[in-house]
């Protein structure tokens, strides 16, 4: 008979693959759970067994208790039991009852310790001491009062649920009574009243306290500076003084601590960013020096973070104008503390752009640039400008630009113009320089394997490989930022700047931000994409024609247009004649009053429009501008006159044929039309620069020398040539050098001494005899006051 075949087939490999991972994991978990449960049972049984053995060993018979100290509840229960079990006393004789009482008072087997192996009846020894007798006397134990327990939430562990309890604190009534008695005694004792200090004594006391605090701060700071790694914990002690509670010196001490911590962080902070350690780095074994350095870095970062939080809290307290519960610092003192905190944040922004939490400082500073307080706003703007000027890599500048752009957009472009004026300090022009350097010194490309195989032998390939490896190591050792990375950062920064500018031009054309936008466009116009040029020029022209702009804003529009055309716009065939006409027409809006500051922008515009675009400027246009500028120099301040005359000197050198304006005998066709607004058709070649003769007698010596120099034809050599300090400077630099903002002349102007005439001219001295006779006749007549009749003379004139 054949063996019965097993119907259950072995699963194939394909079916095993189909088994899901979840099933396998569940099976494994069930197996582990069963093993754990069996282990738990075994441990529980062992624990119970050990506990039973312990109880059997340590179990002692309960001693007799003092019946007086048994609780009333237990006493009643025992009495009931005794009544049930005891024999009735009325059935016993008086002698038997007395015997039982005597036996109860003796130490018998009832009070004997059963655990001892001593026989029951021991013979009394003569040398038995008194102490041993005392020890054998039975005594009752004092039962401690049971303590109440408070049941807490249980804790779950691997072994199971562990119940948690805590003893309820027992209030001792005796202690309370003693404390009340002490308080009553203190009230009864009349204390001597504290003598009030005078103002002078109070100031002396305050000065002493302040001196002590200063010495303590100085000691901590010097200890940290001497050995930062060992004394990093003292930073915490110094920072805790920011919470000074003495109202006499609280504000001053806090300010001193803020400044001291600022200087300390600037000195001891490393020149790299400290990153948190990974789990693998924490678990590895390291030497003592590395461990000490790690502890220093961790302590420094944590204390720096807390310091920044304290500064932020000071600024918030000032903004919210809320008194603290301690009431140590008054509301007036909050502003002083906040200003010190803002100044510290600004210095950290500039001094530590590479260190941790720099982005957090930027987020704090940017809103304060638009603060109501002018001093705080200027402080923050100056810090951002300083950061832009010294930032070579561009990474910190990019972070600030992003936050400013988002802030301006969030406030719907209602911010201070100074925020956007900070963009003018960006170092974006470096891109052009770096590009040229990159073109000249292109990075060396390493040969591919195919190229080596074609051109080099086996030995040469081996040498080449070693050489390339060495070059790569040298490049890594340089650790210099690549030009491409800088270019990428600068490009991203400029994109954000232009997006902000174009949004304002599109949505907020009447905003006070427009001058800053136009000034920024004028500076960075050469970096704008050529595709935007046509649209941008149309927008600028429409702004000028609208008439909503001030004179300075219209000058910014003209300047922006010509900066666009002087850069990449050279390839475009655009004639900016309308911008020339607008500038020529509005030159006489400048005067010695409020618009005198606009002369600086005018000088920059003239440099871009006439000097740099000399090939596109006609001679008629140059003559018209030179003539009108000389007329303008007569009614502006001295520094403006010097700048305008310096521009005329450059134009006369750039366009040599304009010297015909200095020739009185030259004749041209037509008549000069000074009131015409078109520079091409005003016939400026038919006039002369007579204004230079008036400027030659100007009260400012520098204006006199410039006028004499131009009359002589602006020579570069000879007696009429300018001094090197005047000829080598640009017109804008001369305007700033001779500025009158300080209300003084540079150089000082000599006071004109009025010459008094010693003798009065008599009538005989006149040459004309008829005039002499007329004077004598009128002087000899008696003065009579007659009514004036103007109608009489009017009638005669009509006839």
From TrEMBL:
Basic and acidic residues: compositionally biased ranges: 52-78
GO cellular component: mitochondrion; nuclear speck; nucleolus
Region (Disordered): 33-93
Domain of life: Eukaryota
Keyword presence, Glycosyltransferase: no
Signal sequence, start to end: none
Any one GO molecular-function label of the UniProt entry: chromatin binding
Alphabetized InterPro entries for the sequence: ARM-type_fold, CCAAT-binding_factor, Noc3_N, Nucleolar_cplx-assoc_3
Protein name as it appears in the record: Nucleolar complex protein 3 homolog
């Amino acid at each position: 008979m054949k063996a019965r075949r097993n119907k259950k087939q072995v699963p194939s490999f394909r079916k095993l693959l189909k088994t899901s991972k979840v099933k396998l994991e569940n099976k494994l978990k069930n197996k582990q759970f069963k093993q754990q449960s069996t282990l738990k049972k075994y441990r529980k049984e062992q624990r119970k067994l050990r506990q039973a053995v312990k109880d059997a060993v340590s179990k002692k018979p309960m001693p007799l208790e003092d019946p007086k100290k048994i609780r009333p509840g237990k006493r009643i229960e025992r009495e009931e039991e005794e009544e049930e079990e005891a024999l009735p006393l009325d059935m016993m004789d008086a002698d038997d009852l007395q015997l039982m009482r005597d036996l109860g008072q003796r130490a018998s087997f009832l009070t004997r310790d059963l655990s001892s192996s001593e026989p029951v009846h021991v013979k009394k020894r003569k040398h038995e001491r008194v102490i041993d007798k005392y020890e054998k006397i039975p005594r009752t134990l004092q039962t401690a009062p049971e303590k109440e327990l408070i049941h807490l939430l249980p804790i779950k562990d691997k072994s199971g649920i562990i119940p948690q309890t805590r003893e309820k604190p027992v209030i001792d009534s005796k202690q309370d009574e003693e404390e009340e008695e002490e308080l009553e005694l203190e009230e009864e004792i009349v204390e001597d009243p504290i003598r009030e200090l005078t103002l002078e004594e109070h100031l002396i006391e305050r000065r002493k306290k302040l001196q002590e605090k200063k010495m303590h701060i100085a000691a901590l700071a010097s200890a940290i500076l001497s050995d930062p790694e060992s004394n990093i914990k003292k930073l915490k002690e110094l920072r805790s003084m920011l919470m000074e509670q003495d109202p006499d010196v609280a504000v001053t001490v806090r300010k001193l601590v803020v400044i001291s911590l600022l200087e300390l962080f600037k000195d001891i902070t490393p020149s790299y960013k400290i990153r948190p350690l990974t789990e693998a780095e924490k678990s590895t074994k390291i030497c003592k020096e590395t461990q000490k350095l790690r502890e220093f870095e961790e302590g420094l970062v944590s204390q720096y973070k807390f310091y920044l939080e304290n500064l932020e809290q000071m600024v918030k307290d000032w903004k919210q104008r809320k008194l603290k519960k301690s009431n140590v610092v008054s509301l007036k003192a909050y502003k002083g503390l906040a200003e010190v905190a803002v100044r510290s944040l600004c210095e950290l922004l500039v001094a530590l752009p590479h260190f941790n939490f720099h982005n957090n400082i930027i987020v704090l500073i940017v809103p304060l640039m638009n603060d109501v307080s002018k001093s705080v706003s200027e402080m923050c703007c100056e810090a951002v400008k300083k950061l832009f000027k010294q930032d070579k890599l561009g990474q910190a500048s990019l972070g600030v630009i992003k936050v400013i752009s988002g802030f301006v957009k969030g406030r719907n472009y209602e911010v201070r113009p100074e925020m956007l004026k900070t963009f003018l300090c960006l170092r974006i022009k470096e891109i052009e320089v770096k590009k040229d350097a990159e073109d000249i010194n292109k990075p060396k490309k390493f040969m591919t394997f195919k190229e080596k195989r074609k051109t080099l032998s086996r030995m040469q390939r081996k040498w080449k490989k070693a050489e390339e490896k060495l070059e790569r190591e040298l490049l890594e050792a340089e650790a210099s930022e690549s030009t491409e990375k800088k270019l990428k950062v600068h490009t991203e920064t400029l994109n954000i700047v232009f997006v902000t500018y174009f949004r304002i031009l599109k949505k907020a054309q009447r905003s006070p931000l427009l001058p800053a936008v136009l000034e920024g466009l004028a500076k960075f116009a050469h970096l704008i994409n050529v595709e935007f040029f046509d649209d941008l020029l149309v927008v600028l022209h429409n702004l000028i024609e609208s008439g909503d702009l001030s004179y300075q804003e219209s000058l910014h529009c003209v300047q922006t247009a010509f900066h666009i055309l002087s850069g990449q716009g050279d390839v475009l065939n655009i004639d900016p004649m309308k911008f020339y006409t607008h500038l020529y027409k509005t030159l006489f809006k400048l005067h010695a009053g409020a618009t005198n500051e606009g002369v600086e922008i005018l000088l920059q515009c003239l440099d871009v429009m006439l000097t740099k675009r000399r090939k596109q400027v006609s001679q008629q246009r140059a003559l018209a501008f030179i003539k009108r500028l000389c007329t303008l120099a007569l009614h502006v301040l001295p520094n403006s006159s010097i700048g305008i005359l310096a521009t005329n000197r450059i134009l006369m050198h750039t366009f040599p044929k304009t010297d015909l304006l200095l020739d009185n005998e030259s004749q041209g066709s037509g008549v000069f039309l000074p009131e015409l607004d078109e520079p091409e058709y005003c016939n400026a070649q038919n006039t002369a620069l007579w204004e230079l003769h008036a400027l030659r007698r100007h009260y400012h010596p520098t204006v006199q020398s410039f006028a004499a120099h131009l009359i002589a034809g602006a020579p570069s050599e000879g007696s009429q040539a300018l001094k090197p300090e005047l000829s080598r400077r640009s017109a804008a630099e001369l305007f700033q050098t001779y500025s009158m903002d300080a209300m003084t002349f540079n150089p000082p102007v000599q006071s004109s001494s009025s010459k008094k005439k010693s003798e009065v001219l008599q009538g005989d001295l006149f040459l004309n005899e008829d005039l002499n006779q007329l004077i004598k006749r009128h002087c000899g007549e008696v003065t009579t006051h007659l009514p004036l009749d103007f109608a009489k003379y009017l009638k005669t004139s009509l006839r």
